[in-house]
Amino acid sequence: MPEQQTLERAREDAREGKSPNTQAGEFVREEIHHIREGKHGAASTKQAIAIGLSKARRSGVKLSPPKGAVSDKTKTQAARDSRKSKAGTVAGTKKRPSSKRSKAASSALKREGRGAASQAALSRQAKSSARKRGSTARKRSAAKAVQTRKRAA
């Protein structure tokens, strides 16, 4: 279950009309913080991001299932997470999660390393992800970042 503060930040992003990706970013950020403070680990940066996105979907953020070369299992899981938010099961209204399964998942994550949330690992992930997008998309993203920076100053 995401922290109350994260849920509130995501709701605020939604109220401000920000994209679902921006809203989901709050959950990914929380996950990175959890790894950094030693709550648990992650096998890779991608896994940490995936956990955050899953939490976002389960909390009601309207994220579309992943596109591109991802496994059918990943797409199915994303669809299931979205359905769970609509059913209201996450808020604890209908069904409690299995405590055995929950403990097993937590202890498995605790055995993983903490390097997935390092600055270097996150930077590597961002660069490799950007490389896949193509030069036009990168230029557009950079131009948008410049505009945002100008507005903030």
Question: Can you offer a commentary on this structure?
Answer:
The chain has one domain (4-117). With 153 residues, it is mainly α. The mean pLDDT is 88. The longest helix is centred in the C-terminal third of the chain and has 18 residues, at 135-152. The radius of gyration is 17 Å and the shape is globular. The protein has seven helices and no strands. The protein starts with a helix and ends with a helix. It has helices at 4-15, 20-36, 45-58, 72-87, 99-110, 119-133, 135-152.
C-alpha Rg, in Å? Answer: 17 Å
Shape: globular
Beta-strand percentage range: under 5%
Q: Could you give the count of β-strands?
A: 0
How many domains? The number is: 1
Mean model confidence by pLDDT: 88
Uncertain parts: none
Q: Structural class, from helix and strand content? A: mainly alpha
DSSP helix fraction: 55-70%
Order of helices and strands: HHHHHHH
The number of helical runs is 7
Note the gap between the termini.
Answer: 36 Å
Largest sheet: none
